[in-house]
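Methods: example folding runs. The two proteins below were folded one after another, and each record is reproduced exactly as written to the output file, sequence line first and structure-token line second.
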Amino acid sequence: MKVLSLQQELAGNPYPGRGIVIGRSQDGTKAVTAYFIMGRSVNSRNRVFVEDGEGIRTEAFDPSKMEDPSLIIYAPVRVLGNKTIVTNGDQTDTIYEGMDKQMTFEQSLRSRTFEPDGPNYTPRISGIMHIEAGVFNYAMSILKTEDGDPETANRFTFAYNGGKPGMGHFIHTYKENLNPLPSFEGEPKPVDIVGDIDEFTRLVWENLNEDNKVSLFVRYIDIATGEYETRIVNKNQ
């Protein structure tokens, strides 16, 4: 498949919803992930990312404006040994607990489906990064309906080796900005990963729709040592 410009993918879609990018840095030495959230409602936009141990969590920027926290307050990133889990919901905990009991990434997600937020039925997207002895691989998952039918539940998992330098995969919740919101379709998109952590963070943040973007998390993990750097950007300051 043709490697797409991540910049163009982001700039060309005003509302991809929530998105995960995983891949390898341009110099080949780092495992890279980015996770962003967007919002159209006051409740969705009233959020920030904060550090929580080796991971992050969402919290209300203004607690007085918080309505239903059930689908918007969660831990998007958790670390289990040499595994970094990134998701768009509380299935982060499902994966963490399952893999801690020696289940696979895919097995851990079999108990979960899409979000109960009809008529959108937002897909649950997840990623797992594994680094051991200088070897990097990753997987991505999407749990979604069949054409918006809540009586269906489709589960897709995509596994990748460490990939080529400067390349990764991008998956997001919504295909485009319509009502109801249509789910992402197909495989994760092969995209370019450009620059160091600050350049990459800037590229992602600046190309997300200004009105709808809320928060961004980026992490670069040294494949040889496991040491990492993190960047968090919040629209609400």
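Second run, written to the same file directly after the first:
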Amino acid sequence: MSQEPQLVRLARRDVPRAAESLARAFHDYPLLVHACPDAESRPRLARAFGAVALHYAVRWGEVYATSPRFEGIAAWVPGAHFPMTAMKALRAVPWSVFLSLGRHGGNRLRSAGAHLDAIQRRLAPPGHTFLFVLGVQPEFRGQGAVSRLLRPILARLDDERRSCYVDTVNPSAIPIYRHFGFRVLEESPIPKTALTAWALVRPPGTIPT
């Protein structure tokens, strides 16, 4: 029986390439569509958005890719490092990356981000791990990348008896998360947008369907 390829752990030097991958994965993510309706301009915002998340997760957690080609990427951060504080963000993310995010429309993400942070503070279990980022490039979807990214880390969290928390504004992601044992804690509209936020948690030892 063939052995599944090992995940590749990303370092700071990998962030620019990984951010390009996430820009493709997140191009149609509803939150970024809200922030930048112009599809031609959106890749710059998506690239900066991904770079902020990746720098933060590399510094305070761990980031894995399916292979050195970065077809799919998942970033995990201990809940103690979320929501993101200004001090921790500045220690993790180059200032130039924040400037790029703001220059390409990232300021329009602020209120939605504050809404998601408030939900996490209220609902996430103590000692949880936060699935901060999960993205797969469009041409590699449906080929098992999500399973390869999630299963090893969720198995480790089971061994450590830790819950996993995730949020999303993408309704098509809900069945995927449910497949891996997550359950919806709350569904709420994000003020001043047409978006809905879902907060999900996976208790340790949950058997995927």
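Comment on the second run: The radius of gyration is 16 Å.
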